[in-house]
Amino acid sequence: MLYMQGTFRLDRPTVAIDRNGPETSCFQVPQGALVVIDGFHREGNLVEVFYAGRRLLMFENDIRERAQPVHRAATG
Questions:
Q1: Are 67 and 5 in contact (CB under 8 A)?
Q2: Phi, psi at 24, each rounded to 5°
């Protein structure tokens, strides 16, 4: 288990779990999407990500294998 935090761009479509509504649902986040991980919430192998204004869960392994970190340019 690694500590993950930051913004990641998906290289391939990846399954996410949405538990924000009355029912749990799964859907595919598209290739090229940006997901943000704050690093505070996890459930076993699942990490919380933010995508398109939604709080979702993704498998940590999927993010490591299917996403690249997005490095922001320094300003100032």
A1: no
A2: -80, 135
CA 50 to chain centre: 6
Would you say residue 63 lies in a domain?
no
pLDDT of the residue at 2? 57
Q: Is residue 19 part of a domain?
A: yes
The pairs formed by 67-72 with CB atoms below 8 angstroms and a separation of 24 or more are: 67/8, 67/9, 67/10, 67/11, 67/14, 67/35, 68/8, 68/9, 68/11, 69/6, 69/7, 69/8, 70/6, 70/7, 70/8, 70/9, 70/34, 72/7
Task: Report the percent of the chain where pLDDT is more than 90.
Answer: 66
Residue 72 falls inside a structural domain = no
With respect to residue 24, please indicate whether it lies within any of the assigned structural domains.
yes
